What we know:
Blueprint: H1 3-12, H2 19-33, E1 39-43, E2 46-49, H3 56-66, E3 74-76, H4 87-100, E4 105-107, H5 115-121, H6 123-131, H7 135-144, E5 150-154, H8 178-181, E6 182-187, E7 193-198, E8 221-223, E9 231-233, E10 244-248, H9 259-263, H10 276-282, E11 284-285, E12 291-293, E13 300-302, H11 304-313, E14 316-321, E15 330-333, E16 338-341, E17 355-360, E18 372-373, E19 396-401, E20 404-408, H12 413-423, E21 428-433, H13 439-445, E22 453-457, H14 466-476, E23 480-483, H15 487-495, E24 501-505, H16 520-533, H17 535-555, E25 560-566, E26 568-570, E27 577-580, E28 588-590, H18 591-604, E29 609-615, H19 620-630, H20 640-644
Parallel strand pairs: 1-5, 2-3, 3-4, 6-18, 10-14, 11-13, 14-16, 20-21, 20-23, 21-22, 23-24, 24-25, 25-29, 26-28
Antiparallel strand pairs: 2-17, 5-10, 6-7, 8-9, 12-13, 15-16, 17-19, 27-29
GO molecular function: metal ion binding; protein serine/threonine phosphatase activity
Organism: Diplodia seriata
EC number: 3.1.3.16
Amino acid sequence: MSDLDQAIAQLRACRPIPETQVRELCYKARELLIEEGNVVGVDAPVTICGDIHGQFHDLMELFRVGGDVPDTNYLFMGDFVDRGFYSLESFLLLLCLKVRYPDRITLIRGNHESRQITTVYGFYDECLRKYGSANVWRYCCEVFDYLALGALVTGAATNLEPTGTSHADPNTQGSQGEDQDIEIEILNSNNEVINRYPRNPGSDSPGPLGPSSSPIADASTRTGPAGTGASGSSSGSTGNPGGAVLCVHGGLSPLIDTIDKIRLLDRKQEVPHEGAMCDLLWSDPDEIDGWGLSPRGAGFLFGADIVKCFNHKNDLSLIARAHQLVMEGFKEMFDNSIVTVWSAPNYCYRCGNVAAILELGEDGSNGGYVPRGNGDTNRSRGLSDRNRDGPGRRTITTATMSQHVLLIGGHGKVAQFMTPLLLSRSYAVTSMIRDPAQSTTINKLGEGQPGKLNVLVSSVEDVKSEQDARKILDEVKPTWIIWSAAKAFIKASTASPSVSAFLMVSYLASRRTKPAWWSEAEWASATKLNTEILPDYAKAKIAADEYLAAMTKRRGGDFRGICLRPGTLTDERAGGVELGKTGGSGGKVSREAVAQAAVEVLGSGYKGGWLDLLDGKEDVRTAAEKVAKEGVDAFEGEDAERIYALAD
C-alpha cells in the first residue's frame, strides 16, 4: 500500500494524518490544481455535491449513497470546512482522493475556503487543537487559493420541464404513457415514491418542490447595481436544453456575463471582499427582478431574468450551486434553470434538514430512463430501465440522504421519548416491538412529525443468532441502530456496510476497572451493585458493552459504536445533564434526558466510545456537541487489549 493509500485509509477512519504528511499532500495538490483552469471541464456522468462543512460521518454516508471514488465521478462545490467537528479529516480525505484519482473528483472553492472565514467559523481552531500549531491550517489555506472557481459539465442530460406543471399519477395519463409524463421520482428509505416531477408542461398545477417563478415580460431589461454597468434581458429564454451545466459555489456576478470572463480572473489569492471572484462564491438567487444587494454583506442577489439571460448567452441548460441551506436537500428555481444542492444533513447537528446529491446522467446514447434517487435502498433499481421509448431523452437524478433508525424495544419508556425526537429531525424510524397491541401507542408518537414512522412486530427473544438479526436488518435497512444489549445484533450490525452507528444504552457502573476520575467510595458502591445486588444483570451488560467496543474496533472506518451509560433512571422531567466522564455510581438521571442525550449524541457527529450520563447543569445539546468536539471517551482505563481480543 502506498503512503497515499495509507493516508486515505487513516482518514476514512476519521484519524488525522501526521503534519509532515499533510504538508506533502498539500504540495502535491497544489501542483495538480495549478494545471486546472478557473473553470474545470468535467464529462458526464457526474455526481454533484453541495456543502459538507466538516460533517465527516455524513460525508461517509454520501459516499455510501452515491458510490465510492473512483467508481463514481464526483464534483464537490465547496464549503468543505467550518462549523462541523471534522473539517480537517473531511477536507484532507477529499484532497487525498483528488491526488489519488485526479480525473474522478473535482473540487471547487466555496466562500468558507478562506483565511478570514476559517478563523471565525472553526477550522483554524480545529487545526490548533489537533496539531498544536497553525501550520496545517496554513498548508490547507494555500491549497484553497488554487481551487477552481467553477466547473462546466458537458454531455449531461438536463432537459427537465418547469416544476410548475402537473404531477399526476402516470398510470392515469393518456396515450403518451409513463415515460412521457414522469421525469423524476424521489423515494424515501422504504423505496416509496414521495414526489414526482412531470414532463408534460400543459398543466398549471404547482410542482412539489421549489417555487415556480413568475412570468417575465419579453424584451424588458434589468440594470445591475450602480457602477457595474451590468444588465440582464428577461426574454424568457431558459438556455439550451442540450447545453452544458455550470457549477459554482454561490452564483452569478454583475461583472461576469460570459464563462470566458470567469476564466480570465486571478483566482490564486485570498477571497476578496468584493468583485467578480467574491460574487461567484457569495451570491444567491432570489425572487426578484434583476440584481439586488445581498443581506450577507458580500455578493449579490439575482433574479430569474439574470439566470435565463446568462444561460442563453453561454449555451447552458442549468446552473448548479450550493451555498444555501435548503431543508429538502435541493431546490430548483426559475423554470429549472438553476438548482441549489445541499449535502450536509442535520446541518450544524441541529437543523433537521435532509441532504441531497445531484446525479447528472449522460445524454442521447443512453436511451430513456425513469430516474430515481434514494439514499437508503438499492439505487440501481431506479436508474436502469433501458427498455423504454424515447431515445435521446436526458435526465437528472436526485438522491436524498437521511438517516433510518432501527429502535429495538420501541415500547420502552426511554424509546418512547426518543421516537418523536428522532422523527422531528426528519429521520425515518422503525420501532421494533414484540406485542401487536402496542402498535397504537407507538403510531401516536409519529403524529405531526416530518419523519416517517414504521412499526415492526418482532420479538427480540426470537433473535437467537447473528443470522436471525441479519434477517431483520435486511428487511429494515437501517443506517443507525439503538438498543440496550444483545451480541447477535451487535455482530450483525458491524458486519452490515449500510449500518454506520450502533448506540447501546447501558448503565453507569458497567465496567471492570475503576475510572481514574472516580473516588474509592464510588467504585466500592459500583462493585457492590455489580457483584451482590445485580450480578446477572451486570455480567450481561458488561459483556455487551465490551463486545460492542471490540466489534467497533474490528469494523473500523467510519462505524460509530456508542455506549451511553446513564445513572439510576427516574421519571422526572429532563433538565440539564452531565455527559462524558461523570461522577460514579449513585447518581440519577431522568429517562427523558437519556432519550435526548442519545439523539443529540448520534446527531452530533460523535465518533464513538463510552459516555456516562447523569443529571447536571449543562444543556443536553451543548453537552453532546462538547463531547463530540473534544472526543471524550469514558472507556479510558479499561483493559483495551483484552476487550479488543473479544472480536477474534
